[in-house]
UniProtKB/TrEMBL annotation:
Family under the similarity heading: Belongs to the biotin--protein ligase family.
Protein name (database record): Bifunctional ligase/repressor BirA
Enzyme class, UniProt record, top EC level: ligase
Top-level lineage group: Bacteria
Keyword set includes DNA-binding: yes
Binding site for biotin: 13-15, 37, 41-43, 107
Shown chain mapped onto the complete sequence: 77 to 322 of 326
Record EC number: 6.3.4.15
Length: 246
């Protein structure tokens, strides 16, 4: 991972670029990084504010030989890799399953995994990671400053973007190799469990079918969230999860 890094000063979206390169045959492990994104993309068709030099905006191209159904495992790997990198620089964050990192209750990192697959084969997978590193608190748009933050806004000083980027990629490689070699994401799941902001709490689950409440119990070895609702245990594989009280 990251043996080849393609760096842009400014780009629409590293995910768009990575998908284009992947479709043209770019090798597994190729990383696209930009200083600024003019059209950063979030989940559910949302945007992602990506100011110049203030964050880590990057996408990793992967070609895992796994069932497309298991693609979300790579998102768990990404969350674990980012959390571990932040913890190494003394930033005490939480993971909000399935793909957010939160700091003091606000989102500091988002992950957007996109896939091109046929029936039971993945052609390529792009995992886009956005970390708000040195954005000043005044620079965070008002519409989102109650739900979004940056490391700098919380810890009060600049942090080393390059060091965190390298840590994320090193961790990612380690956790991803476990998936490729042994078909397991055990190490990542242990981190996702220990750092989870959801486990043991009443959560609100918002899907396109509406909202409901349940208790988050565990994260499985496959990366699903186990919830309990009226004494019944259920597995969630995706969906927008929001925690009550945040
Ligand atoms: C989300 O939480 O909604 C996911 C946000 C993902 C943002 C990153 S920044 C790098 C990559 N390129 C994009 O356009 N999006 C992802």
């Amino acid at each position: 991972i990251g043996r080849k890094i393609i760096h842009f000063d400014s780009i629409d979206s590293t995910n768009i670029k990575a998908k284009q390169l992947a479709a043209e045959g770019a090798k597994e492990g190729t990383v696209v990084i930009a200083e600024e994104q003019t059209m950063g993309r979030g989940r559910l068709g949302r945007g992602w504010v990506s100011p110049k030099g203030k964050g880590i905006w990057m996408s990793i191209i992967l070609r895992p030989n796994i069932d497309p159904i298991d693609a979300s495992k790579v998102t768990q790997i990404g969350a674990a890799a980012v959390w571990s990198a932040l913890s190494k620089v003394g930033v005490d964050a939480y993971i909000k399953w399935p793909n957010d990192i939160v700091l003091n209750g606000k989102k500091v990192c988002g992950i957007l995994t996109e896939m091109s697959a046929e029936l039971n084969r993945i052609n390529y997978l792009v995992i886009g990671i956005g970390v708000n590193v040195n954005i000043n608190s005044q620079e965070i748009p008002k519409e989102i400053n109650n739900i979004a933050t940056s490391i700098k806004a919380e810890v009060g000083h600049d942090v080393d973007r390059k060091f965190i980027t390298a840590e994320i990629l090193n961790n990612f490689e380690r956790f991803y190799n476990e998936l490729i070699k042994y078909g397991s994401i055990k190490t990542s799941i242990e981190i996702c469990r220990k750092a989870s902001i959801l486990l043991g709490r009443e959560i609100k689950i918002i899907t396109n079918k509406g909202e409901r409440r349940a208790k988050a119990i565990d994260i499985t070895e496959q990366g699903e969230l186990l919830i309990e609702e009226n004494g019944k245990i259920e597995k969630l594989i995706s969906g927008e999860i929001s925690v009550r009280g945040i």
